[in-house]
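GDSL esterase/lipase: structure tokens wanted.
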Amino acid sequence: MFIRLISFLVLVGLYAGFGTSQPLAPALIIMGDSVVDAGNNNLRLTLVKANFPPYGRDFSAHKATGRFSNGKLAIDFTAENLGFTSSPVAYLSQDAENVTNLLTGANFASGASGYHDGTSLLYNAISLTQQVENYKEYQSKVTSMVGRDKANEIFKRAIHLLSTGSSDFIQSYYINPILNTIVTPDRYSDRLMRFYSTFIQNMYDLGASRIGVTTLPPLGCLPAAITMFGGIGSNTCVERLNRDAVSFNTKLNNTSVYLANKLPGLKLVVLDIYNPLLNMVKNPAENGIVFGHSFMACCGTGTVETSFLCNALSVGTCSNATSYVFWDGFHPSEAANRVLADNLLGQGFALIS
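Answer:
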């Protein structure tokens, strides 16, 4: 905790030194799943969307943008913490058609995407492989605007954030009786590590040298996971799912250390969201915000609703989401996202130092 505090103070000092008009990185690139999707699924033929009420009800102009929350995502607060005046635009949104908006980054994430492209295929999400292809296209657009030398400098110094993996388990592995009978969670994690390693290598080859990747959250504490695997009415986390997440996160850390040592000049930082989110669930009064509801979500019954099941007609949706850790069955509320972003700030110090 002391080291994290020092890192935070140094980071704040660096930011103050640059002045409020100068972000700590030239661009912010986001990839992953629904936890960081800012609207890329809006025009896709998929059930995994969030561009309708009550999503976004606490966002700017009370507008549903495709973010899977009642308001801002953790990456929105992260962008603010890094000094950006706005979050990276969703690459497949109309905002990205104004190519000048791409100079400070872009968001390629897609709800229900995973490390495994097969997970994305189940829900017609944008696979991680395709997100990399879209990033290549993005690079070409930036290069055409500023020239190759300046563009390469932007890509090299940009902060690239990846947040994915939950869908691989909750929306694929655990609900596939054939897969989870034949393949153990440990072996499945090993398979995902191979996809992760390929992703990092590909991004490195494209010039990315500063990459942050989030751990899995405590999967067994997600309201939908408690309902699906722990039983309706349960108010405790499903510990076997949490054990799988801890095991995966250990592999993620070890693999990341190996990749960072293997690839010269790469700054690869694993950002822990498991423990901060678990702390909010189990110690709801210790985060500056009093979370009165940590096992049930705000939307609908608070047990399973997400995406199209969390809609304007959902009965039981809370009137004030600030006391809830989770907005829907899978995703944190804006209040929880703020806490997560503040935790990530100190952890990501190496990405800007």
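The two ends are 19 Å apart (CA to CA). Residues 149 and 184 are 47 Å apart (CA to CA).

Cheers.
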